[in-house]
Input
Amino acid sequence: MSSQGIYHKTEKGRTEIATHANKLGLRERTMLIMVDDKTTRDGLLAKNAHPTSEGILNTLLADGYIEIAGGGQPVAVAPSATAGAPATAAVPVSGQPAVEVSLISASRFACRALVANLGPGADDLTTLVEKCSSLEDLKTRLEKCRMVIQGMAGKKKADEFWAGVSARLPQE
Output
């Protein structure tokens, strides 16, 4: 995703702030309110350092609550110059704007989805997901999370969870 573009609320975003029409969650609403027509993606993420903030920002962008000023589209993140750091890329998902493909993006998405599906009881699972340092470890942990979501929230929610994390997981 572009870290240089300025984000601003769309008409849908302004309506949500005024009316709560779509009943965004607290973290999503907080991030939406933080979008001020002056701050870049990096600036917003610096202001809200919660592990799910990047995923929330991606979702607000994909769902049309915010956009990049000037109508710009998200762009792929350049591969990391740090040795050993996983490279990231952006790929389209089901006609939506591109999502970042990286361990961090998959982990953040998973944590956000776990909290959304399981509520405060997801804290232990999100901690375990955040501690994963390899792709194989993360995949194993996410498979277990998928089973927990299926048991507690149903197959449909588990399938949505798996589709979201699969889109963000790097290919081996």
Q: What stands out?
A: The radius of gyration is 16 Å. The mean pLDDT is 79. The CA atoms of residues 29 and 165 lie 22 Å apart. The chain has eight helices and four strands.
